[in-house]
Structures are given as C-alpha cells and as structure tokens.
Amino acid sequence: MTTLKVGIASYDDMKARTMAIARGEWKVAASEPKIWFTSTESFAKVLSAGNRDLLRTIAEKAPGSLDELARLTGRAKSNLSRTLKTMAEYGLVRLDRGERGRIVPKVTHDRVELHLPLTDGHLGRVA
Length: 127
What we know:
single chain, alpha/beta, Arc Repressor Mutant, subunit A, 3-stranded parallel β-sheet, two-stranded antiparallel sheet, 5 strands
C-alpha cells in the first residue's frame, strides 16, 4: 500500500493554488499533498478514532459487502454508507462493486501523512 499525503489549507489558499497550477505558475511536486482539508477539525472528523478502527477492520477482515462490514463493526449500514462515501471522496477507501452488485470497501492506503502549515500562505512551493 501507499501513503496518502493530505494538507490543511483555507478555501482561499486552495483556490489560489489551483488557479496558479492552471496558469502554469505552480508545478505540483510529488511530495505535495494530493488531498486537502479546510480545517484540522474536518480532518479529525474524517479520521476519528472510530473511523480509523473502521479502516483497520476493512483492511484486516476484507468484508465482501456493507452488510458484512455492519456485522463486523456493529455499526448501522446507513451510517457506514455515509462514512465510507466521505472517506472515498478523500481517497481513503475505494468502493468497488462485488458479487451481485454489492458494494465492497477497500482501504487504499496504509498511512496518512499530514502537511500542516503553521503560518498563512504556505501550501507548498511555487515553481
């Protein structure tokens, strides 16, 4: 597996970075985050202790469906579905179609590396 690089930046900083990339003023380095959160709180919510346990369960038990995952975790299927969709948006899981169209969650990374600038305007480097 691989490391998912994530960063924390304000919406305005992310927009400025995206525009600089589009104008060719910023070259994205391989070491830069690929996924961005707008706050440490949103990052902490997605990767809460319970959600990290969920990711571990998926990685270790390889459930073949959301029903099986619900049985393994004791969480409601509807709750799991919402949580996994959010995690998929951030690249933490992949939701494949399995046997008879069942959704099969797969963990895509075994680590998360956080880029957290302590001063404004330091998302990375401008080429």
